[in-house]
Amino acid sequence: MTMGNVTPAHVAYRTHRFKEMLAWYMRVFGASVQYQDPALAFLTYDDEHHRFALVDLDVIRPETAGKDDRGLVGVDHVAYSVNSLADLLESYAELKDAGILPYWCVNHGMSASLYYADPDGNQMEFTVDVFPTKAEGSAYFRGETIKGNPVGVEFDPEDWLARFRNGDRESDILKFDAKGAVSPIRGELLVLRVEE
């Protein structure tokens, strides 16, 4: 199994040129903004809930404003869609048996994701939609829930795997806890902060 049956979903970029990047992706791809706040923007050019995510480093990491350091700006992660929660969780179990673990497990509200880093530290997200239709996923960006938590709530993949194997419905497992603690952003962005 191992995450082999995936479809490219989106790319996330860290930038100090948030407004320029937003305008560029809107112009070049004909993308429209699904959701935007001072630190984040999610854009799409088709029925997918988002194809691009932009992270404004001037807000997330203001101490680096104006810096164009390699490794700080650029691709944050590449995301791949998985067909079902079953595929995501069974692939998690298989990869865990091989000693490969995710560094971040988060239910974003419109999708639930496992984030992995390859041996060079390249970050990738394997994600499954929370809603049964693309239209519902896109509508999530226009609702109130995302305004209170644009990042998501962390989950324990072992708990989700046990629930799934015990017969819990995927929709019950994927239900977003809007009152859950907002997850810190994890991954290379966090590593950079610790090393400085």
From TrEMBL:
Residues 7-129 form the VOC domain. It holds the Pfam family Glyoxalase. SUPFAM superfamilies: Glyoxalase/Bleomycin resistance protein/Dihydroxybiphenyl dioxygenase. This is VOC domain-containing protein.
